[in-house]
Amino acid sequence: MPIRKIESVRKRDGNVAPYDEQKIAEAIAKAARASGLDNGTIGRDLASVVTMYLERYHERETPTSQEIQQLVEKILFDTGNAPIARAYIVHREKKGQPAEAPSAPPTEDLFPTGLLLVDGATTGDVAPWGRERIIAALTKEAGLEEQAATEIAGAVEQKIFRLGQRRISTSLIRELVNHELLGRGYGSKLRRQIVVGLPKYDLGQLVGDEEAQIDPETLCRTIGQATLRQYALQEIFARDVADAHIEGRLHLHGLEEPLKLHALSPSVASLRRTGVRVRGSSVLSEPARDARTFTAQLSRVLTDARRYVSGPVTLHHLSEAYDQLLWGAEEGAVRAEVEHLGVVLDGATAGVHPRHRTAPGIAAGGRALVTVSAEGDELKEFCRIGAERGMMFQFDRPGATASAAGWSATAHAITLNLPQAYYRSEAGTDFYSELETSIELAAKAHLQKRQLLRKFTDKATGTLGNGLGWTSEGAGPLRFDDLEYAVGIAGLNESVRLLSNEEILGSDTAVRLALRIVSYVYFRLREESTRHGLKLVLEDVPVADASDRFVKIDAQLYPRARGLLADRTRYTPGFRVRSAPAFEALAVESRFHTLVPSARATVERQRLSAAELFTILGRLHSETQASHLAVE
């Protein structure tokens, strides 16, 4: 549905007055002050969200003042600002105003652009048509002379163009090439053209590279992942979803391991209570009484997790558990056990708190997730480690959701390509309409992933992990209906630049445009969640691989993209701005946390010292609502 501009509002007395976003901002800020949660920008930020929602969903061009007030309440509750909403409602009740949430109209279908594209069977990418690729493949892979290869490529090209298709796969091209080879008496060359997961030529390159250090396990995994990627795009996901991935409209994470969950957070507290139900091991199957046993239990859980999870594994509040288990132990024993734990973690994210004495040792293994509270001095050692090798900091604030109370998992992750929505809109549509299509396709992809995971769910208990010993009484720790399905974004800064001719840090107007885009995605995902009974969440998904692929595809298909990307190699990931680690830039990034609690303000460790990091953490904690700071 197209965006309409809201220019006026109908007052309670029937008169029409100009629409004033500033009045909404002041009302929200007043309620925030009354609830003790005013951070200086929340009024302006959420007022822009209200405006976006009105322009996107309101059925009439002139809303009433009551409808606007009702919508403000809905936005406040939906964005997790219940105390502010209650303060706002108190003000309304004094005037006897009822509160009702407006409903959203259905969305509209959109039409794709018409391009002649070639799907890469093994790469998952898309490229414009090019006859020279067939010639190169025939000379290099099949060993033909260039003249014969040119003739066959020309014949195949004629057949393809007569088909009148918008898209054609490399697999079909190979079939047409094989037909020409057979018809021209080159039957002996066909064996070199057969695809078995990977083309034989590609397999030969992997196995026969004399200069490469061949690792059989890695080689087999690479071949298997390439085959599974093809299978996922051809069988697990519908054609329109696979097309969206191949064309770079969105990125389906974990295609190489489609049967796995995307991310997992085991419950440290639950493991302490129950142990791990391992057949033949009474020690691991009982609650741990010492640190060495608990480390062995964690090792078993993490080993199984790597078999069933393709992405990050996070253990919240791990240092608290070890502080209890190592209480009163000698310093040498503490050091030895923490070093052992560091080996076991092997890349998993460990939640630590500075006030626990085992925390620095735990931080040395895997990736540390350090809790930052009002106390400052305890952070200095972590700032030193973070400045040296990177670290994640989370801020301890009232109402924080990260806990070790129960297991949680993200089933699947998808990243949206925001700049491509703009490039597609130049063909005569609208940026938000193109973004709408991407969101609907993402929801469809998540539904298909859920359908696949249902096959691995215990029907009696409706849980996953039953056979891994992660919990007791025959039920797995992960309820199928509680799995989350994440959607991330890439290129927010670039899309703002395309829409406004300035980057996010260029002005407060640009910041509010970025917030508008994020809020659009946020509310559409909430609607799709309700519609499908699916836990869709807007997350700060790691998007390095997706961002690189988006840039490559967009540069091939859209001339405008080549100009935009002249000074960069990838789109800015997630909710980032392009800047040195100045506090002002980090403060802007933290403004997205109102809608996306998982969003991370980010600095590069090469650019700051431990002392500077310590200062930045203190200011972010006291002056913003930032939830995370990533030192990368």
| Beta strands, count | 20
Strand content: 5-15%
Q: pLDDT under 50 segments (min length 5)? A: 97-115
Determine the mean pLDDT: 82
Q: What's the tally of helices?
A: 24
Measured distance between first and last alpha carbons: 39 Å
Gyration radius, rounded: 27 Å
Question: By helix and strand content, what is the structural category?
Answer: alpha/beta
Helix-residue proportion: 40-55%
Summarize the biggest pleated sheet: 6 strands, mixed
Overall 3D shape:
globular
User: Spatial order of the strands in the main sheet?
Assistant: 10-11-12-13-20-19
Briefly, what is this?
This protein is of the alpha/beta class.
Could you explain the architecture of this structure?
By secondary structure, the protein is of the alpha/beta class. Helices cover 49% and strands 12% of the residues. β11 (349-352), α15 (359-363) and β12 form a beta-alpha-beta unit. The longest helix has 25 residues, at 508-532. The radius of gyration is 27 Å and the shape is globular.
Show the helix and strand layout:
Blueprint: E1 8-10, E2 16-18, H1 21-34, H2 42-57, H3 65-78, H4 82-93, E3 117-119, E4 126-128, H5 131-140, H6 146-163, E5 167-169, H7 170-183, E6 195-196, E7 198-199, H8 200-208, H9 216-236, H10 239-246, E8 250-252, E9 263-265, H11 268-274, H12 291-308, E10 314-315, H13 318-325, H14 331-345, E11 349-352, H15 359-363, E12 367-372, H16 380-389, E13 391-395, E14 408-417, H17 418-425, H18 431-454, E15 463-464, E16 478-479, E17 484-490, H19 492-500, H20 508-532, E18 535-538, H21 544-557, H22 559-564, H23 583-590, E19 601-603, H24 610-623, E20 628-631
Parallel strand pairs: 3-5, 10-11, 11-12, 12-13, 14-17, 17-18, 19-20
Antiparallel strand pairs: 1-2, 3-4, 6-7, 8-14, 9-14, 13-20, 15-16
Helix pairs in contact: 1-2, 1-4, 2-3, 2-20, 3-4, 5-6, 6-7, 12-14, 16-24, 17-18, 17-19, 18-20, 19-20, 23-24
